[in-house]
């Protein structure tokens, strides 16, 4: 702009920069309570608000999990059909990727062959990445 901004606007911007969080405007504590209450109400699932970790996206989350919970050479079990960036997560952490193909149904849904799923688990399998194929 060609003129100095009003002091209250400058102060508000300083406060936001000092806060350090530039994402969603809802305070994280409030958002944590909303999420945990909803999990309890809809699914009877009790989760501590402190157990929630906010990440910038699904793909970065899968990559983080692969790095955090495994060692190079460990295995990751994935059900395919999932998007390619998710399929890359194990290799990004120097892991092996074991795939178990989901079974397509006439209604465009997928089912799990649990015998095949169990057979795909190996001694090196450390994590299972579950992702809806419709994401």
Structural commentary:
The relative contact order is 0.13. The strands form two sheets. The chain has a three-stranded parallel sheet with strand order 2-1-5, sandwiched between helices. It has a two-stranded antiparallel ribbon with strand order 3-4. It has 135 residues and is an alpha/beta fold. The mean pLDDT is 88. It folds into two domains: 7-51, no CATH class; 58-129. The radius of gyration is 21 Å and the shape is elongated. The chain is built from six helices and five strands. The two termini are 42 Å apart.
Features:
2 domains; alpha/beta; 135 residues; 3-stranded parallel β-sheet
Structure summarized in a few sentences:
With 135 residues, the chain is an alpha/beta fold. The protein contains six helices and five strands, in the order αααβααβββαβ. The radius of gyration is 21 Å and the shape is elongated.
Strand portion, in percent? Answer: 15-25%
Query: Distance N terminus to C terminus?
Result: 42 Å
Q: Strand-and-helix sequence, N→C? A: HHHEHHEEEHE
The count of strands amounts to 5
Count of domain modules: 2
Radius of gyration: 21 Å
The helical percent reads 40-55%
Structural class of the helices, strands and pairings? alpha/beta
Averaged pLDDT: 88
Dominant shape: elongated
Largest sheet: 3 strands, parallel
Total helix count? 6
Low-confidence stretches: none
Strand order across the largest sheet: 2-1-5
Task: Note the topology.
Layout: H1 7-19, H2 28-43, H3 58-69, E1 75-80, H4 84-87, H5 89-92, E2 96-101, E3 103-104, E4 110-111, H6 114-120, E5 125-129
Parallel strand pairs: 1-2, 1-5
Antiparallel strand pairs: 3-4
């Amino acid at each position: 702009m060609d003129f100095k901004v009003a002091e209250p606007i400058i102060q508000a911007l300083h406060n936001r920069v000092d806060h350090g969080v530039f994402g969603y405007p809802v305070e994280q504590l409030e958002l944590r309570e909303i999420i945990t209450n909803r999990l309890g109400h809809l699914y009877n699932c009790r989760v501590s608000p402190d157990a929630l970790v906010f990440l910038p996206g699904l793909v970065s989350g899968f990559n983080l999990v692969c790095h955090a919970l495994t060692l190079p050479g460990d295995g990751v079990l994935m059900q395919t059909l999932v998007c390619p960036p998710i399929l890359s997560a194990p290799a990004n952490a120097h892991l092996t990727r074991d795939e178990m193909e989901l079974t397509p149904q006439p209604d465009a849904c997928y089912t799990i062959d649990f015998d095949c799923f169990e057979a795909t688990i190996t001694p090196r399998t450390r994590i299972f990445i579950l992702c809806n194929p419709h994401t």
